[in-house]
């Protein structure tokens, strides 16, 4: 696949060439992408091979001009009322661990997202959210890093009136 954009104001042109191969005998997909910033990206993924709903992937980025390299090991598990992800980012600064999970049952949703920096031995992100949906009514609240608290309430009263805070 070839993609491209041009900005007439700045004269900047962005383009990329992406290839995707599926190896059905081994059950994995290989994607490669090269863009006009001269960055190469590769992703190797396996889906539904170990457990139904699971996905394992490794992605790597390389910029030949600067020599900068980065990689990510990703895992995901999806089920009817459950979704979880665990990722590890690798670069020159070290590794970062990311995890998230979402549960849903009878209109209720709850989720958490965490990031951990092992070099500093500390959590860099802690986000939690809870929500409820019943018909035309939605309630949602979340806490980000224990510092930012948000919430919303929405209701569709009728076909001509909706309200939300």
From TrEMBL:
GO terms for cellular component: mitochondrial outer membrane; pore complex. InterPro entries: Porin_dom_sf, Porin_Euk, Porin_Euk/Tom40. It is found in: Mitochondrion outer membrane. The lineage of its organism: Eukaryota, Metazoa, Ecdysozoa, Arthropoda, Chelicerata. This is Voltage-dependent anion-selective channel protein 3. The keyword Membrane applies. Keywords: Ion transport, Membrane, Mitochondrion, Mitochondrion outer membrane, Porin, Transmembrane, Transmembrane beta strand, Transport. It comes from the Eukaryota. CDD domains: Porin3_VDAC. It comes from Oppiella nova. Belongs to the eukaryotic mitochondrial porin family.
């Amino acid at each position: 696949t070839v993609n491209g954009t041009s900005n007439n104001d700045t004269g900047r042109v962005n383009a990329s060439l992406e290839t995707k191969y599926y190896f059905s005998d081994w059950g994995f997909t290989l994607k490669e992408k090269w863009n006009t910033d001269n960055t190469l990206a590769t992703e190797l993924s396996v889906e539904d091979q170990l457990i139904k709903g699971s996905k394992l992937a490794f992605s790597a980025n390389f910029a030949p001009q600067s020599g900068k390299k980065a990689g990510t090991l990703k895992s995901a598990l999806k089920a009817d009322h459950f979704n979880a992800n665990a990722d590890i980012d690798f670069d020159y600064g070290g590794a970062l661990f990311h995890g998230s999970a979402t549960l849903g049952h009878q209109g209720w949703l709850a989720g958490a997202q965490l990031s951990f920096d092992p070099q500093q031995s500390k959590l860099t992100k802690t986000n939690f959210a809870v929500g409820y949906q019943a018909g035309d009514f939605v309630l949602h609240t979340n806490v980000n890093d224990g510092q930012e608290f948000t919430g919303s309430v929405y209701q569709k009263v009728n076909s001509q009136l909706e309200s939300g805070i």
